[in-house]
User: Fold this.
Amino acid sequence: MRTQKKNKNWFTLVELIVIIVILSILWIIGFISMNGYGASARDSSRISDMTNIEKALRFHAAQFWGYPAPDNNQWISYSWWLVWTQWVFWDDLVVKLQRINKKPVDPLTKNEYAYSVLNSNTEFQIAWMLESNIVYSPTNVRSAYADSRVWKAYVTGDYNGKIAKTSMWATTYILAVPTIISWDMWLLDLLTLVQNKKLVYNKQPAKPASYVWTEFSATAEFDFTPSGLVVFEGDEDELSDLSTQTQFLEKLQEAYSWTIVTEIDNELYDLVNLELNTLDPSDAAKKMSHSLLKSSVSSDIPSYVWKTNPPPIVSWPCGLTAWDVATLNDFFDYPGSPYQHATEQEWCDETAINAYAKSISKELPSVIGKLENLESLEVHGNDITGTIDPSIWTLASLERLNLNDNDMTGTIPASLWALTSLETLWLKNNDFTWTIPEGFDALSSLVWLDLAGNNLSWGLPLNIGNLSNLENVYLHNNDFSQLPDSLASLTNLKLLSLYGNSQLWGLSSYISPSSSTRTQANITETWAQMTISGNGTTIDVSVN
Assistant:
């Protein structure tokens, strides 16, 4: 009797090798993905730290007219005179600022973030590093990136990025300095730092000082070699002279020409490529030199813009001069602009200006205040800089004002309240600071108010309840800490957006209980919909 053998199936060696290779690839992909998620989470934590630090510093500066010095700071000097102080954002600063719960540190290396303050205490920078491909681009930091091969430094703050000033007795030195962060705290002489390429610049791979002993692999130098560090030396009063201002700008151009920063920073690129005739400087050159000197050297620096060869005084419609018309045409000089070649009569007859997302990067000219027939002014989604000039609040017919999504700074002027015909006021996503001035109730026609995404603090005006026509109010992502009881008087209010004001208190006095509300005095936890005095108003205070 013959026995039958059973067939047995086995993997061949080639098949086993293929399976092992596939499993190895899958494991590597999974490992890289998980590692990437970890890096992204840590980067999100770093960015959150930076946002909180910046808000706390700006709030402190608004209260005390300057930024606090770094803990255990080192003096960076030129010719033995202080230019900036630098060290880290440490425990003492957390206590002093009173708006951060605990000391922020890098989530991976546990080191503190680098922090420096200019000698005037009016400009600062913070530096840290990212480890993933995340893009970080807040309003005051140009878009940058970091990758996993060579991590790069990120620098934020309000330092002007062009010049710093120091004084020795009666001699003032103005220095061409693109950053006030160093990665070698053993070198305290500015000239030595520059010569040894020890500065840290945004998007460059040099480590901030507090990261030097960490595992981050960014060890390259910031190759900034100016032709001359000093762009002015002498008595500060000399800068009142136009020729001295022009010579300063010429030396500043020479200092930055052919340096790496002109390839990175658009403003420095514009500076070095500005045509400069020292014997007969253009208005653009005069305006640039005056702006730099006034903001970073002395507020007493006189302006020579518009003062040379003034246009003849003639009678123009609605008070416009030839120079006013040229200013307006220049401001709205973009492709396809209907205003570029407008005449004085056309400007005077204009009732609605709309320049949405036209990449305008200038200051809003005050001459707009002369357009007496203007009913709507919308220049949102641009890069408009500077403050709100009080002179434009002479527009008695203005019903709609939209300055959303620009780079405007300063405070909201009280002269705004003269616009009694205004129905919509949109100022969101700028960098307006301090608080809303009293007199707000003069805007009796106001229906829509949007102040979200600024740095406004303290409380709303006590008389906001007098605005009986107000329906929509957006105040989220600011630093408000108090709300007035008069909000309960806004009987037509439909939406009040308050989220992102983490210090906000005092809602209980005008929130009426319902099945979906809570009547606690603070809103540090997530709240859903609530009603004011039973009128059905939606209040969004989520994420507070």
